[in-house]
Amino acid sequence: MDPFGPPNTPSTSGLPYSGVEQSYPDGYNRPIQSFDFMRMLRAPFQSPNWVMNLVWMFVCQIAGVIVIGSLVLFGYQAEVAEARSGGRSENWPDFNPDRFMDYLMRGLWPFLWSLIWAIPFMIFLGIPVIATFVLSNILIQGGNDVSGVIVIVTGGLVSIAAYCFAMLSMLASMMHSGLGNDFQKGADFRWIRSYVSKMGVTTVWTGIVYILVGNIMGWLGILCFCVGVLAVGPILNLMTADLLSQLHDIFVSRGGDSAFAGAKTGTDIIEAQVIL
């Protein structure tokens, strides 16, 4: 069954037909194949309990000082991403403090992979940076200023490319382990390679958009007598959850394998949401 097409079997939830195909009823997301900027902006406010969700995100930020808050935040973001991916309900799953340990354990896997990737990340990035610095200094001190500048520019571009590749690989590892709720999935290099090749450019430019939005929100928060700054982080955390679901859906639409363990698609997803 194509998870990015409309359900093609009748549903006990009364899924309506549209011509020869079934259409998604109001309140359900059709799986996306391209980045939806406005959906990401609206996402944090789609739940009737969005204020409390922001409060809990703020609490997680504060608790992030002792790491636990970051783990819970990662886990909650992964659950939101799963709930909003692949044609599931657009209703936002509210933060449930009774599920603290569930969030904590699910967030532990991407956190551990971020630590595991730290050393190879620094080595991979450090090689072109150090090589550029040493070689350009040798050339400039030898009077070859033009060659030195060329090395600096070339080395800078190579360093940027290496940084993007390393960041994408680490992100893919963290995504696969977090969304799949399985530590071992972070070491699935076939999935990581597939994600980087299919989603590299998309992830980079959506990341740039996300950073720009965050900076704009930060300045707006400062203009609101600095009080608004307190809400910027929690809002961005909820936006991150939706962005993860979008990146996952786009990846699957391009032929990638779903990160979710035993993920259901199509009508089964919609029926499950209605029952819940």
Topology readout:
Blueprint: E1 17-18, E2 21-22, H1 37-42, H2 50-63, H3 68-83, H4 100-141, H5 145-179, H6 189-223, H7 229-253, H8 267-275
Antiparallel strand pairs: 1-2
Helix pairs in contact: 2-3, 2-7, 3-4, 3-7, 4-5, 5-6, 6-7
Brief digest:
The chain has 276 residues and is an all-alpha fold.
- Indicate the low-confidence ranges by residue numbers: 1-28, 263-276
Oligomer: single chain
Structural category: mainly alpha
Q: Indicate how many domains the architecture comprises.
A: 1
The level of helicity is 55-70%
**What is the radius of gyration computed over CA atoms, rounded to a whole number of angstroms?**
22 Å
Shape: globular
Order of helices and strands: EEHHHHHHHH
Secondary structure: number of strands: 2
Question: Please, what is the average pLDDT?
Answer: 78
